[in-house]
Amino acid sequence: MIKAILIDDEAKCLTSLFADLSEYCPQVEVLQQCGSAKEGLKAIRQLQPNLVFLDINMPWMTGLELLEVVGEIDFDVIFTTAHDQYAVQAFRLSAIDYLLKPIDYQDLIEAVRKVENKGQGVSPEQLSLLKENMDPDSNLQRIGVPTKAGIDFILIQDILYCEADSNYTFVHLEGDKRLYSARTLKEFEQLLQQDSFCRIHQSFLINLNHLKKYFRGDGGYVEMVNGVSLNVSRSKKEELLAKIRM
Fold first, then answer.
1. What is the pLDDT of residues 160-171, one digit of tens each?
2. Which of 8, 81, 161, 201 could tie 206 with a disulfide, CB 3.0–4.6 Å?
C-alpha cells in the first residue's frame, strides 16, 4: 500500500480527491487530509507518508515553502494546481509532474501509476528551478530536460537547436554536446516561447542567437554557428525572416 497525505486549503478539493482515490486507486491509503500547510507539515513529520498530494498555492505557506521547511524529502510528491497557465508553464520548465484542478480521474490513475513504477520524487534543484519559474519577475535562464538517465538542468542560452526524433527530441548544445529527451519538439516549442527561438521546420527549433547565416531559396536553409545546415520549410520562412528583421 502507498500511504498518502492530502494537503489543500480548499475543503471541496480534499473531498473530491479522497473520493477519487478511494474509487480509482485502492492501492493508496490516505492517512490524513490536511486543510492547511501548517497541518500538512505536522502530519508529514508525524506520519511519515510515502506520498504527498500537495496544493502549490495556499495561504500562510505555499506548497514550495512547505517542502523547503521539510528539508530532506524522502517521500514522493504529486503537486496539484488550478488551471493557471503561468503555473503550468513553471512546472513544465522544471520537469515536474502535476495534476490540474479539477483533477481528472484518469490523470490521477496515471500519476499514481508513475509513483508505483518509478516514483515522483522532486530534487532540490527542481524545487529551486520551480521557485525561479513561479516568480513573474524572474528572467528565465534554465530549463529541466528529462532524459532516460534522469533530468539535466541546462542554461537556455546554451541550446543551439532542437531536432525532432519521432516523439523524442535531440537537444543540441554548445561544445558539441547533445541530450536525448522524452519531450516532443512541440513541447520544447511551447516551453521556449522567447523571441530568440524560432520553429523553422517540422523537425527543427533553432536559437537565433546561434544562427550564423540564412540562405535564400524555396524555403532556404540556415547555417548554425557550429557549421550545421538545417532546412527551412516554406511555411516557416516568413516567420523566420520576420524574427531575423526584429
1. 999 999 999 999
2. 161
